[in-house]
UniProtKB/TrEMBL annotation, chain A:
This is ABC transporter ATP-binding protein. Residues 1-15 have a biased composition (Polar residues). The keyword Cell membrane applies. PANTHER family: DIPEPTIDE TRANSPORT ATP-BINDING PROTEIN DPPD (PTHR43297:SF2), OLIGOPEPTIDE TRANSPORT ATP-BINDING PROTEIN APPD (PTHR43297). Residues 1-28 are annotated as: Disordered. PROSITE patterns: ABC_TRANSPORTER_1, ABC_TRANSPORTER_2. The keyword ATP-binding applies. It holds the Pfam family ABC_tran. InterPro entries: AAA+_ATPase, ABC_Ni/Peptide_Import, ABC_transporter-like_ATP-bd, ABC_transporter-like_CS, Oligopep_ABC_C, P-loop_NTPase. Keywords: ATP-binding, Cell membrane, Membrane, Nucleotide-binding, Transport.
TrEMBL record, chain B:
CDD domains: TM_PBP2 (cd06261). SUPFAM superfamilies: MetI-like. The lineage of its organism: Bacteria, Pseudomonadati, Pseudomonadota, Betaproteobacteria, Burkholderiales. One of its GO terms (biological process) is transmembrane transport. Pfam families: BPD_transp_1, OppC_N. This is ABC transporter permease. GO terms for cellular component: plasma membrane.
Automatic annotation (TrEMBL), chain C:
Residues 94-307 form the ABC transmembrane type-1 domain. GO terms for biological process: transmembrane transport. Belongs to the binding-protein-dependent transport system permease family. This is ABC transporter permease. It is a multi-pass membrane protein. PROSITE patterns: ABC_TM1.
UniProtKB/TrEMBL annotation, chain D:
Gene3D superfamilies: P-loop containing nucleotide triphosphate hydrolases. Keywords: ATP-binding, Cell membrane, Membrane, Nucleotide-binding, Transport. Residues 316-345 are annotated as: Disordered. One of its GO terms (biological process) is transmembrane transport. The keyword tRNA processing does not apply. This is ATP-binding cassette domain-containing protein. It comes from Allopusillimonas soli.
Length: 351, 303, 323, 345, 501
């Protein structure tokens, strides 16, 4: 049963992958910083294979900001970790194509991978309280990130750390270097995590819900700094979040993920204004605000399905207000407009 | 039915036991441990019916049969000492069966009592904090600075010798460890939000302590308990070694080992080897079962 | 910090008081020292004379009061058995126990931590399971058994190491240590390994548990994401975090080994305090037992404090607070 | 009905003595300084909560929202000031009214995982307190729990599961059911939706609104998410460093905010938009509550700071034109005033 | 060559007058010389006193003229006087040497080489007693304290100057004691340059140390290992009969003692037939063979024949006879037997608890159920002295080697003031025998005394007032090129250990 499913989904993926991987056909692959096609990451557990990422294709140009949106458990983080080649066993990464900056990520040796991580591609995690080692001072944790990739004296490394901390808006950075993480507020820690990501001037930063654990004012500051940095340094950014409102002001493009697949992707303004997938409709409409006051919020019923043994067909069908008999077939990714694609039999803007 | 629950199979509550059994069987190693443990428990419980000899009955011992190697027959040829005899001419096999009975009894009773006492003290200290905590922890300190042999000797002198006295001594020695561990775990749990939730519902403190905090402190304590069971049996052996253990005429497994020890250099290895082997097997079995139990009793691991 | 120390000190004082009272009562219950000391042919008058000389004719509380009175001036009485100042007898033997306990803990940490980390890193591998089962054996085998086995193997059969005793020592002022002397070290090795067998088992288990808890933490993954070398992740990030439980357990166990290395010292005729304690308990040499246990309480309290301070160094989040 | 409010806070205060660290302690000892510094987590808060009302509390992390909520629900005793329950000071209540108060005010916590005992089954989590308090006989517990579960949209068939077997939204529903089990009139929601992602958050918010309609509940809704607060609250109080700096009905706050801090917060509010936007954060960070700034606590970060702000702390005053007026038709009670603590006119 | 000895017990002190205990005495006998020594059979022989004469209560000792202390000063009568004077002054002594001088009235120096001792009454044991009080150097051991050099000082070796074959070098408590040859020794030079004593209390460890070659000689190897040790070609085993008897005491009080039941409120142990039955039930040969591995002699009396005061009649242990025992029990009205308790220390005597169990097993065959209660010696002695056992197992070492010693302590009617029956915890009382013992204690004539003692011991044995079980053999195990003759008093005297010829 399970194996049949397995086969089927890979088949459809493979068949679908070719035509619709590059929605913006105008894009030349030389121009691309990141070119991922058919990324599949599965966790081989005793109960079966959890297909956390199931045929994701992504392209990113230099300096581009991509918002990766989806609800909890949809595979956003695993996508990020897969790019970093940081998926722990029993997870396994497969992909049809996985190129970063012209290099094949899949064929890299572990040592090359290590060098790639942190230097060319950096990641910021969701929980600022947990990402810094509580038993090590900030300077230790920053300097080691530099020394892991280049021979640099501690003094020079420290100098560089101070500069970067300044850049992310930390007052009196030299002093902050000498404290332990618990002496700092959540916002500070997250900024330090961002600073660590920036230390080696990477070409791509993957930010995995870096503001979810923080409150509004801090979130504002961090968004401000990230935006500034991307503009100044031309770093590309993947911003993972479940809140469309947060990225809508930041990202150039959005990709909406559901159950391990990308169900809709396009320029931010296209998606916000003319979302095609019912799931995207749900995400947009369930954001509470002063306008929705007193009224019932639109809600997507149920919750993300388990990625273990997904039933065949569109994974969203059980929660979809447009679902019908057609949905037992897995829909392909199709362009709705140049640079805007969706994966649904019943595409269309919400009434 | 809401679709989001499709993936959650519905365990009818009557079959919780079945779920438990199914889970337990998922580890072959633990199953082996359980089978071995059950066999040994059975042997211990039914020792009087299984054992070829009653080694506690002095009248059945013939001193001329002492220190016979495994497989020897007794004087009149009516029985064979499959594992040999010890210096007191006890049949080692029977002695192991009976000794197992005592050792397991001593181990289980002392550890479970120490567990209860220690946990009660530790939880109380952690929950009330400050003064209560300081006083209780000082008592624990005193206990931990008391050598077990002294405790055993005092009890021996006050109460006389006997298996029950050994159990008291072991409890007295062990409870403090549980108290410390329980306190450590409870202090962490006390600050969890669900305790606050319970307090906001105006539940009485003892209920919060026992129904909410305690069950969450059990896993680390379980680890200690399974290890301590082995420890208790070994400690009892050590007390016997120092002459303050169970009565000599009713040797425990530990005492058999320590008695047999005197014969090791003389080549009568079986007197200590077989009891030692039995002890090691039991302890390993207990720990295999204990480790697995702890894993599956953790609701997070429930499928 | 200072107030913590002072408070702990006061609490320790109370513990010492309670402890000494308990020991007084306990030994009184166990038996009569005169019976153990006097020649069996002694007449009643002679026994009475001994009793009087040792102050055992007074009511127990009175004896205790006298003891306290003297203890204030740091006089803990003289051994019944050999008339030497009790504290001096103990202090004479302390270095031997100290080096034994220290080496034993050192061995168990040096052996136990890497094994535990390994077992935690690869929990399902056969070797990890082997380590864990082996550690179980380390727990369950009685200490005296392990000790004699070591003697049989390494001293009698192989003849590599001495079977017991302390061997030559190097003097450092009043302190004599045998670790720094090759022959002395050899005689220290077997008893230390005997103790280390069971302690190592504990360290392995603690380390493994801590490793398993620490590995899935975000900061480990973040360190990987920084591109930090695996060696450094294990050696710095992981190790520093798992040291906290190891130090706790290690400290506790170190105290226990130091205070009550009775069985091992007996078997190896190691001239340490544990052997003195057991001999004194057996002969009901009360001044020595009392002084010993008072010393132990103070030592354990100090150790606790040291462990707490070590905490603050290892885990900067923990602060010393008055208990 | 302009009856007395169900809960009133009068000059409510909560201090913490910060456990000083090693260095600080030694330093203090050397300097022979006085007692350890005190954190005023909540300082002099006055607030009336009318029956059936939803009061939203907004503020930065560490400004004292949770502390306030905990005091309301009786988990934490206040250091100073008093809480009036139906006009009676809680401190002076007799045992039975006190009990009634304890049951009447319930709390829903932020973390739907850690606030549910991982080793209890849902039926016990929800059913324990009503049985213990004698609201429901033991024999009827399951039925009662099943009813509650249905009410919050959970399938009663799952009552023998553990909390970890539920998704975040479901877990939060269990928390709601647990609070409802004691028939409360006031529910304190401490960041009750902060841990949920948007789609689940919408489910839970809808549930809150439905229950409010069905049971006439009063909510004390703590959140740092202005969007959520604006969606659900009738009235919003903005907290800063332990104090309420502005309070008014929701529309007023969102349209005519007076306090610069509130304005800054509103500027932060992320919203769906199709154009790129530039983020302009509030300067600086929340000052340490251990060492609050003199005068107006917001002055170091305030764009309109005046010399006076540095010395004199502005009181919470009624805004001109923001006097009390009657609520629109249908809703009971009196519309409280728009108050703000700022020297700006 | 050096000699390393594995001691069973560490001495508690180096002060030869602090604690009268074999581990202490055997070392002081190596450092010091007494006026007279006892040989390996406990017979007094000349030592510092070349000769002596007895005249009623007055003993005159002629001192050896060539005797010198290890610091080179010659030994004179002054030193003897100083030594005997110091004995009662030693403070806090847990077991005073005054015991050995209790019969001495006064000590005088006639000239530098003659000492006269006057006793309070006739004292046949004087020589044996004096052999345990070695002579110290007045010059070295004088000091400001009343007793001269204090025990603590002596323990450090300060003032520890004797005329024995070895002199003190160092003592590391618990670790080792080192003696070196005394160059000034008057007698034959012993074989060893240095003697190192190592206390190894655990018997298995002691054997291991010998096997590992760490020590040359060990005291008291466990009996179980003897077979193996004997078969080891590298070792030599010395077994010597000792003066220690292991016995069973039976509580013969009027009340049924603790632990007894099934006797209708009577104490059957008062009945001689019952006592005889108990004795007959015990197979002493089996105990010696199976439990002691032959390292013992079945005992029929309190001292082995032909020690002083033993008779041929009780030279051999009675053979066991279960049938007869049963019959005797039935005659006494206890055909169904009864229950009693059998106390035993654990670890005080060789295989003590195992012997106790064997006895209980043997008694079980005649229907007497004995509950064996073994315990740490400290607890055992306390309980024994409060009559907590119906019967108990204990040992007695008659250091003087004659019968009067065990009789006086173990079976004479208890009179604590007079020092009679000090260890008689069985409530046994036989006035006829008491008289005989008293008379013997004041008789100087050896033949007559022996006769009295034979009679007295015969009375007890016939009465089954106490049940001797076995005499321990003292055992030493040593490397095969060493020899030690062994001593009845179980002391290990390093100077007597020699290289094998
Ligand atoms: N180690 C693992 N073993 C098995 N399944 C896993 C493992 N790690 C993640 N998963 C599964 O992979 C899926 C995707 O997880 P992921 O963390 O990427 O979600 P997410 O979109 O980041 O959610 P969130 O918003 O909660 O962070 C989830 O269903 C999760 O259960
Ligand atoms: N137990 C405590 N001991 C000492 N200080 C405390 C304690 N609890 C809270 N505080 C302090 O009180 C202040 C207010 O805390 P509170 O938890 O009420 O803030 P909050 O507004 O709920 O923040 P968040 O949004 O992070 O939950 C903070 O400065 C905090 O450091
Ligand atoms: Mg994630
Ligand atoms: Mg809060």
């Amino acid at each position: 049963m399970q194996t049949i499913n397995d086969l089927r989904s890979t088949q459809t993926d493979a068949s679908v992958a070719q035509p619709d991987v590059a929605p913006g056909s105008s894009r030349e692959s030389a121009d691309l910083l990141l070119d991922i096609q058919g990324l599949r990451t599965g966790f081989h557990t005793r109960e079966g294979v959890v297909k956390a990422v199931d045929g994701v294709s992504l392209q990113l140009r230099h300096g581009e900001i991509l918002g990766l949106v989806g609800e909890s458990g949809s595979g956003k983080s695993i996508t990020g970790f897969s790019l970093m080649r940081l998926v722990d066993p029993p997870g396994r990464i497969e992909a049809d194509r996985m190129h970063f900056d012209g290099r094949d990520l899949l064929s890299m040796s572990p040592e090359e991978c290590r060098h790639m991580r942190g230097r060319d591609m950096a990641m910021i995690f969701q929980d600022p309280m947990m990402t810094l080692n509580p038993t090590l001072r900030v300077d230790t944790q920053m300097i080691e990130a530099l020394q892991a990739h280049e021979r640099i004296s501690s003094k020079a490394a420290r100098q560089r750390c101070v500069e970067v901390l300044e850049k992310v808006g930390i007052p009196s950075p030299a002093e902050r270097l000498l404290v332990y993480p618990h002496h700092l507020s959540g916002g500070m820690r997250q900024r330090i995590a961002i600073a660590i990501a920036l230390l080696n001037a990477p070409r791509l930063i993957i930010a995995d819900e870096p503001t979810t654990a923080l409150d509004v004012t801090i979130q504002g500051q961090i968004l401000y700094e990230v935006q500034k940095l991307c503009r100044e340094t031309g770093t590309a950014l993947i911003w993972i979040t479940h809140d469309l409102a947060v990225v809508s002001g930041l990202a150039d493009r959005l990709a909406v993920m559901y159950a391990g697949r990308i169900v809709e992707t396009g320029l931010t303004e296209d998606i916000i204004a003319r979302a095609q997938h019912p799931y995207t409709h749900g995400l947009i409409a369930s954001i509470p605000s002063i306008e929705t006051r007193g009224a019932e919020l639109f809600q997507i019923p149920g919750s993300t399905p388990s990625l273990l043994n997904l039933p065949p067909g569109c994974p969203f069908q059980a929660r979809c207000y447009r679902a019908d008999g057609a949905c037992v077939e897995d829909p392909p990714m199709e362009d709705v407009a140049p640079g805007h694609a969706a994966r649904c039999w019943h595409r269309g803007v919400q009434a | 039915m809401p679709p989001d629950t499709d993936d959650l199979p519905l365990p009818a509550h009557a079959s919780l036991w079945r779920v438990f059994v199914a889970q337990f069987r998922s580890s072959k190693l633990a199953m082996c441990g359980l089978v071995v443990l059950l066999i040994f428990l059975g042997l211990a419980i039914f020792a009087p019916w299984i054992a070829p000899q009653n080694p506690f009955d002095l009248a059945s011992l013939d001193i001329f049969d002492s220190k016979l190697p495994p497989g020897s027959a007794n004087m009149d040829g009516s029985m064979t000492y499959w594992l040999g005899t010890d210096g007191q001419s006890r049949d080692v096999l029977s002695a192991i069966l009976y000794g197992l009975r005592i050792s397991l009894f001593v181990g289980f009773v002392s550890v479970s009592s120490a567990f209860l006492i220690g946990t009660a003290v530790g939880l109380t200290g952690a929950y009330f904090g400050r003064r209560v905590d300081a006083v209780l922890m000082r008592i624990v300190d005193i206990q931990l600075s008391f050598p077990s042999i002294l405790v055993a000797l005092v009890l021996l002198a006050m109460l006389g010798k006997g298996v029950d006295k050994v159990i008291y001594a072991l409890i007295a020695v062990q409870w403090a460890y549980f108290a410390r561990a329980a306190r450590g775990a409870a202090i962490v749990e006390r600050n969890r939000e669900y305790v606050e939730a319970a307090r906001s519902m105006a539940l009485p403190w003892h209920r919060i302590l026992w129904r909410h905090v305690f069950p969450n402190c059990v896993p680390p304590l379980m680890v200690i308990a399974t290890i301590d069971l082995a420890h208790a049996i070994a400690l009892e052996a050590t007390l016997s070694f120092l002459g303050v253990g169970v009565p000599v005429t009713e040797p425990s497994l530990g005492m058999l080992i320590s008695n047999g020890f005197e014969f090791l250099l003389s080549g009568s290895y079986w007197i200590t080897f077989f009891p030692g082997l039995a002890l090691a097997i039991v302890v390993i079995a207990i720990n295999l079962v204990g480790d697995h139990l702890r894993d599956i009793l953790n609701p997070r691991n429930e499928i | 910090m200072l107030s913590t120390i002072i408070r702990r000190l006061l609490q320790t004082l109370v513990v010492v008081l309670v402890m000494s009272a308990l020991v007084f009562a306990g030994l009184y219950v166990i038996g009569d020292p005169v019976l153990m000391l006097a020649s069996p042919e002694a007449t009643a008058a002679e026994r009475e004379a001994i009793r009087q000389a040792l102050g055992l004719n007074l009511p127990l509380w009175h004896q205790y009061a006298i003891f306290l009175g003297k203890a204030i001036h740091l006089d803990f009485g003289h051994s019944f058995l050999n008339g030497e100042p009790a504290m001096q007898l103990i202090l004479e033997r302390m270095p031997a126990t100290l080096e034994l306990a220290t080496l034993a803990m050192f061995i168990s940490v040096v052996v136990g931590v890497p094994l535990g980390v390994y077992a935690g890193l690869k929990p399902r591998s056969a070797s990890a399971r082997g380590i864990m089962t082996g550690s179980l054996l380390g727990f369950s085998l009685p200490n005296f058994w392990v000790g004699l086995m070591f003697i049989m193997l390494f001293a009698v059969m192989l003849g590599w190491l001495p079977a017991g005793g302390r061997g030559p020592v190097e003097s450092f002022g009043p302190i004599q240590l045998s670790v720094f002397n090759w022959e002395g070290f050899k005689s220290l090795l077997l008893p230390a390994c005997t103790i280390a067998t069971s302690k190592c088992a504990l360290i392995i288990r603690v380390t493994r548990a801590a490793t398993r808890e620490c590995l899935p933490q975000d900061y480990i993954k973040f360190a990987r994401a920084k591109g930090v070398r695996e060696k450094r992740i294990l050696g710095v990030h992981l190790l520093k975090n798992i040291m906290i439980p190891i130090v706790t357990i290690g400290g506790l166990e170190y105290g226990q080994v130091f205070a009550f290395a009775v069985v091992t010292e007996t078997i190896f005729s190691w001239p340490g305090m544990g052997k003195l304690l057991i001999d004194s308990i057996i002969t009901l040499d009360r001044p020595v037992v009392v002084a010993y246990l008072m010393l132990t309480v103070v030592f354990l309290a100090t150790l606790n404090l040291v462990v707490d301070v070590a905490y603050t160094i290892l885990d900067p989040r923990v602060r010393l607070e008055a208990a | 009905m302009t009856g007395p409010p169900i809960l009133s806070l009068r000059a409510l205060r909560r201090d913490y003595v910060q456990p000083a660290d090693l260095i600080a302690r030694i330093g203090r000892m050397l300097k022979r300084a006085g007692p350890p510094p005190v954190v005023q987590a909540v300082a002099e808060v006055d607030l009336d909560i009318a029956e059936g009302e939803v009061v939203g509390i907004v503020g930065e992390s560490g400004c004292g929202k949770s502390t306030l909520g905990r005091m309301l629900s009786g988990i934490l005793p206040p250091t100073g000031g008093e809480i009036l329950y139906k006009g009676q000071p809680v401190a002076g209540l007799d045992a039975s009214s006190r009990h009634r108060y304890a049951l009447d005010v319930q709390m829903i916590f932020q973390d739907p995982f850690s606030s549910l005992n991982p080793r209890m089954r849902v039926v016990d989590i929800i059913g324990e307190a009503p049985v213990v308090h004698g609201l429901v006989p033991r024999a009827r517990k399951e039925a009662y729990v099943a009813g509650l579960m249905r009410k919050v949209g959970l399938d009663p068939a799952y009552r023998f599961r553990y909390s970890h077997q539920f998704s975040g939204g479901q877990r939060q529903r269990i928390g709601v059911a647990r609070a409802l089990a004691l028939n409360p009139t006031v529910i304190v929601c401490d960041e009750a939706v902060a841990a949920l992602d948007v789609s689940i958050q919408a489910q839970v918010l809808n549930l809150f609104m439905r229950l409010r309609k069905e049971l006439g509940l009063t909510y004390f809704f703590i959140s740092h998410n202005l969007g959520v607060v604006s969606h659900i609250s009738d009235r919003v109080a903005i907290m800063y460093l332990g104090r309420i700096v502005e309070i008014a009905d929701t529309d007023t706050i969102f349209s005519r905010a007076h306090h610069p801090y509130t304005q800054a917060l509103l500027a932060e509010l992320p919203s769906l938009r199709t154009d790129r936007r530039s983020f302009v954060p509030i300067r600086g960070e929340l000052p340490s509550p251990l060492d609050p700034p003199s005068g107006c606590p917001f002055h170091p970060r305030c764009p309109h700071v005046m010399p006076r702000c540095k010395t004199q702390r502005p009181e919470l005053r009624i805004r001109p034109g923001g006097e009390q007026r009657l609520l629109p038709e249908g809703q009971a009670g009196e519309q409280p005033a728009h108050m703000s603590a700022c020297h700006l006119p | 060559r050096d000699l390393t000895i594995g001691l069973r017990t560490e001495p508690s002190s180096m002060d030869p007058q602090f604690h009268s205990l074999t581990p202490n005495t055997q070392l002081s006998e190596t450092l010091f010389d007494p006026l007279v020594r006892t040989d390996k059979n406990a017979k007094p022989v000349a030592c510092l006193a070349e000769s002596w004469t007895v005249d009623g209560n007055v003993w005159t000792f002629k001192l050896r003229k060539d005797a010198k202390f290890s610091d080179g000063t010659p030994l004179t009568a002054d030193d003897v006087l100083f030594t005997y004077d110091r004995v009662p002054k030693v403070p806090n002594s847990p077991s005073s040497y005054a015991l050995y001088l209790s019969t001495v009235d006064k000590v005088e120096a006639v000239d530098p080489h003659t000492v006269r001792i006057t006793t309070k009454g006739p004292s046949p044991v004087l020589l044996a007693n004096l052999s345990l009080v070695p002579i110290m150097s007045k010059k070295a051991a004088s000091g400001p304290a009343p007793e001269g050099k204090t025990t603590t000082e002596l323990n450090r070796g300060d003032g520890l100057v004797g005329s024995g074959p070895y002199k003190f070098v160092s003592w590391k408590r618990g670790a080792e004691i080192v003696f070196a040859r005394n160059e000034h020794y008057w007698g034959e030079k012993p074989d060893w340059d240095k003697i190192i004593y190592r206390p190894i209390t655990n018997s298995a460890a002691r054997v291991a140390a010998l096997l590992a070659g760490d020590v040359d000689v060990i005291e008291d190897p466990p009996t179980d290992d003897l077979a193996r040790l004997k078969s080891d070609a590298n070792l030599h085993i010395q077994e010597t009969p000792s003066v220690r008897v292991i016995y069973l005491a039976l509580n013969q009080g009027d009340e049924p003692p603790k632990g007894m039941s099934g006797t209708d409120g009577k104490n059957p142990l008062q009945d001689k037939r019952v006592r005889e039955a108990l004795s007959l039930a015990i197979d002493r040969d089996a105990i010696v063979k199976r439990i002691m591995d032959g390292v013992g002699l079945p005992a029929g009396n309190l001292l082995p024949y032909p020690a002083f005061g033993t008779s041929k009649e009780h030279a051999k242990a009675e053979p066991s006879d279960v049938e007869k025992a049963k019959k005797l029990l039935a005659d006494a009205g206890y055909a169904k037997g009864f229950t009693l308790s059998l106390g035993s220390p654990d670890g005080r005597y060789t295989n003590d608890k195992r012997i106790a169990q064997a006895v209980a097993a043997m008694w079980a065959r005649i229907g007497i159920k004995a509950n064996v209660e073994t315990m740490a010696p400290s607890v055992f002695f306390k309980k024994r002295n409060t009559y907590e056992f119906s019967t108990y197992l204990a040992g007695w070492s008659a250091s003087s080697g004659e019968m009067i010693n065990p009789l006086k302590s173990l079976v004479v009617t208890k009179d604590p003031e007079a020092g009679l029956g000090t260890t008689n915890w069985s409530k046994y009382s036989n006035p006829d025998m008491d008289k005989l013992v008293l008379e013997a204690s004041q008789t100087l004539d050896d033949d007559k005394r022996s006769e009295l003692l034979q009679k007295a011991s015969g009375l007890v044995m016939d009465d089954y007032g106490i049940l001797p079980l076995q005499f321990e053999l003292s055992v030493w195990a040593m490397k095969k090129d060493l020899r030690y003759e062994g001593r009845a008093d179980q002391m290990t005297l390093a100077q007597d250990i020699t290289l094998a010829k």
